[in-house]
């Protein structure tokens, strides 16, 4: 298993940004989507960009997912495709699968199907941004106090 090889399935805003970020940090990225336009949009930024139906276990085997450190299912709006992709990844033996969800209920379902980690983007971003706002305000207040001294 390559420690720095990742499989990203779904190349919408989140998947494409994640693929690009991982590649910028030196990871080998296999980026997959059913839509060739999405594949074309990232092909210059990642090691491999492939048009593929990731709900099909045989199609997944053609890209050798077992050599990846993790598979990230970044499909956004189609929950059925997310579940089917997760099931296909489990069927071919992928152990570390991260899946994107839109709600706590979806998260529970994805964990039950076999996701090792689930990301609720909107929830996590809200928490992170809230901390950044408070941290930024506290840092500015401290700077203001230091300038007065």
TrEMBL record:
Q: Name one GO biological process term.
A: potassium ion transport
Which sequence ranges form a coiled-coil region, renumbered to this chain?
none
Q: Where is the RCK N-terminal domain?
A: 3-120
Q: Which InterPro entries match?
A: NAD(P)-bd_dom_sf, RCK_N, Trk_Ktr_HKT_K-transport
In terms of Pfam families, this protein maps to: TrkA_N
Looking up PANTHER family in the UniProt record yields: KTR SYSTEM POTASSIUM UPTAKE PROTEIN C (PTHR43833:SF7), POTASSIUM CHANNEL PROTEIN 2-RELATED-RELATED (PTHR43833)
Q: What is this protein called?
A: NAD-binding protein
- This chain's source organism reads Nannocystis pusilla
């Amino acid at each position: 298993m390559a420690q720095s090889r990742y499989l990203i399935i779904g190349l919408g805003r989140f998947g494409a940004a994640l693929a690009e970020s991982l590649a910028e940090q030196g990871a080998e990225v296999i980026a997959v989507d059913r839509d060739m336009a999405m594949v074309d949009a990232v092909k210059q930024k990642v090691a491999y960009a492939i048009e593929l139906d990731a709900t099909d276990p045989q199609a997944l085997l053609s890209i050798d997912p077992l050599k990846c450190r993790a598979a990230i299912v970044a499909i956004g709006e189609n929950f059925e495709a997310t579940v089917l992709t997760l099931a296909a990844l489990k069927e071919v033996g992928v152990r570390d699968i991260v899946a994107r969800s839109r709600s706590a209920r979806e998260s529970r379902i994805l964990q039950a199907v076999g996701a090792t980690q689930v990301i609720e983007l909107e929830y996590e971003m809200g928490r992170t941004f809230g901390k950044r706002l408070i941290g930024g305000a506290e840092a500015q207040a401290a700077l203001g106090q230091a300038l007065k001294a």
